[in-house]
């Protein structure tokens, strides 16, 4: 197979399909989504069987346990996949919304209309549930999509693709609205991320290695984040009980998520009172503490934190801790070592809260709340295609709105420019 | 000079300065802008003299007349430059605005805060007025900027830079908020557009050749447009007087602007009545007509339009004309040959107007108005750094808002995730 030609063909078909799905009404899109969910439920056994084929092959090939775990699809996981698609059907349709119409001195009315981006390329690891999820979000937001999942999931992904096409057909929509790459040749990715003429945005979903590789090579804009090195800063005069509760949740609720806190900054004035109970709580939960010299003087179990520790997303029960002068040094530390993802302050001081919100250069900035809230569902977006630490376009959790754009519309009555 | 080190140094200083200007209050920024305007007025003679040095050198080097014209700065142009900076001072400050605050079931309040992008790189031709204009827009929107103007304008640009720095200093702001590249070495551009770690967005201002070159090489996101192949489509049953007036203005008011109409589509049902008077008007104004066979049957002076003509931004008194079946074919033509910049329909039919607005995939879509209105000032943005035909982030005319982004803010009371 000539891979470049194959990807070009996917791109041309996606571009043509994008015109059709962009003008499809909400009823047709929701009908398709509900039909896809019903087909997934109906074919649950077949999907699990296709997945078993993938899992067996991956195990023989020696895929590591964590990846095997993400690849495996149980009957419950299939049911959750169908439910996820139905939830997307139930969300409001962002497409076509007109806002900010204002009459100008020339007589024209100028406003904005929300429209799909066009063609979205999704590149992800061997997680079959992402296939249904990403297809549903792109479809609902009026975009054509090209889905390239990890090669280990190929059988299950193709089985899901057939059900997506069945659902699209039942709503009178062409199958090319959602194209699932049918070859495992890795060269597909290289072409997809450079095909500016047919792909409007790439969303990589997967580990840091994947995203870093794509960032280095992509010519198409990406909605992505590389790292989630999130901080909690406990300010002078914070409520200590609240600080303990927030740090516990932000660090220990889940270790592998991008909105988990990886670093703790504590104002010097309360380090003596806060650090011992906090360290006891973390140690009880099995979290390793890597601290600055002041931290180590107060916490015997802490090892020394390196520069690299402060810059790390551990994704593990490890936390770096530093005692700082106060809010100025905390903000400087976060903007220097952080990843512009999500950072929180615990404070009772109004001016400190406002300053932290303004000056921390991150996609999500929080006062007196756990960083774990940085999530499309918790923010009320109803769904999430990913989280962006880029500054242009969508920033933070990205839902349906982030898969759309606003064009300008002008409503005139024959006005010409003077 | 080691150019890569020099650009890295510019980047590091810009990043540091971006933290300072991001938190500067509106008073300080406006004070700096007014001081810059005053300094420009005061030093008008010196600026004209520095410019004369540039113009003389460029003329000796054989720079072509159109470029010499854009390079030349008269005393009136200096006054206009100062006035432009004062106008930016008078605009509302977008930074810090909080919107969409909503309480979530968990108890947290989630909203968005408008913040600067960080560091903006502006790459432009030898037009000294752009130096003051771009510096003012970046400063007001809370961004640090790195300005790289065409090498022929180096003396005048350095003279303007000194006045910008004087204005910044008078407001207590560091000069590194606006850095004007001091070498004419072209290698600067190559490094600047790849320095992702220190530059958040590149805005190229200049001709198609410049933008195309940067697009091919940039690693930093760009706010740009390549072409302005704008269309007017005259629909069945349009008001013919209105159609004539709009086409005249859209095509002939100015030939060299990106929002000038380059192509005219006419519904077959009114071609016989509209084309003869329209061709007479265009011919009277010296506009060359390149048409489809049906057009040529009605307009004897029309030559044959090629595929390339339909895809061209002429920037000249030339227009391509095609008779189409109706709105469906018009939309298809525009989405195929157009540049996603600005397209207008002339119609009295409500459904056609709505369909055109929804389905034409362009940054600005207009009903019964001249494409010439696609402009930051006409849209009420108060200023314009450029026009974008990209779909992500800012689309269409880009003012202060397009130089900012929105981060999420969470206001909690100790909430943790369950």
UniProtKB/TrEMBL annotation, chains A, B:
Gene Ontology cellular-component terms for this entry are: cytoplasm
Which GO terms label this protein's molecular function in UniProt?
A: glutamate-5-semialdehyde dehydrogenase activity; NADP binding
**Catalytic activity, per the record?**
L-glutamate 5-semialdehyde + phosphate + NADP(+) = L-glutamyl 5-phosphate + NADPH + H(+)
Q: What class of enzyme is it?
A: oxidoreductase
Q: Which Pfam families match?
A: Aldedh
Residue stretches making up the Aldehyde dehydrogenase domain: 7-282, 310-374
GO-annotated biological processes: L-proline biosynthetic process
Q: Under what name is this protein listed?
A: Gamma-glutamyl phosphate reductase
């Amino acid at each position: 197979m000539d891979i470049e030609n194959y990807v070009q063909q996917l791109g041309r078909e996606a571009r043509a399909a994008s015109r059709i799905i962009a003008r499809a009404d909400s009823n047709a899109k929701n009908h398709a989504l509900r039909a896809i969910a019903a087909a997934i439920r109906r074919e649950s056994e077949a999907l699990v069987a296709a997945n078993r084929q993938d899992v067996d092959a991956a195990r023989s090939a020696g895929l590591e346990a964590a990846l095997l775990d993400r690849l495996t699809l149980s009957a419950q996981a299939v049911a959750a996949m169908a439910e996820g698609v139905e939830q997307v059907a139930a969300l409001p349709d962002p497409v076509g919304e007109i806002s900010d119409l204002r009459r100008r001195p020339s007589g024209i009315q100028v406003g904005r209309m929300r429209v799909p981006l066009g063609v979205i390329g999704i590149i992800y690891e061997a997680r079959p549930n992402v296939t249904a999820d990403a297809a549903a979000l792109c479809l609902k937001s009026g975009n054509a999509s090209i889905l390239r999942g990890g090669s280990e999931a190929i059988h299950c992904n193709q089985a899901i693709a057939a059900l997506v096409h069945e659902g699209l057909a039942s709503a009178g929509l062409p199958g090319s609205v959602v194209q699932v790459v049918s070859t495992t040749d890795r060269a597909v990715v290289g072409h997809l991320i450079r095909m500016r003429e047919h792909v409007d945005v790439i969303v990589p979903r997967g580990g840091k290695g994947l995203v870093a590789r794509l960032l280095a090579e992509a010519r198409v804009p990406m909605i992505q984040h590389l790292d989630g090195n999130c901080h909690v800063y406990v300010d002078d005069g914070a409520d200590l009980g609240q600080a303990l509760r927030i740090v516990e949740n932000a660090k220990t609720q889940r270790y592998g998520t991008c909105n988990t806190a990886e670093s703790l900054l504590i104002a010097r004035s309360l380090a003596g009172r806060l650090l011992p109970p906090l360290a006891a709580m973390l140690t009880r939960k099995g979290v390793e503490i890597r601290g600055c010299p002041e931290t180590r003087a107060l916490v015997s179990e802490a090892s020394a934190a390196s520069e690299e520790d402060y810059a790390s997303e551990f994704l593990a029960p490890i936390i770096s801790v530093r005692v700082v002068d106060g809010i100025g040094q905390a903000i400087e530390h976060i903007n220097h070592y952080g990843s512009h993802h999500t950072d929180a302050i615990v404070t009772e001081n109004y001016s400190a809260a406002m300053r932290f919100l303004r000056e921390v250069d991150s996609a999500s900035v929080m006062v007196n709340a756990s960083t774990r809230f940085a999530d499309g569902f918790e923010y009320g977006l109803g769904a999430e295609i990913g989280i962006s630490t880029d500054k242009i376009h969508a920033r933070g959790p990205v839902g349906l709105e982030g898969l759309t754009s606003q064009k300008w519309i002008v409503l005139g009555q024959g006005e010409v420019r003077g």
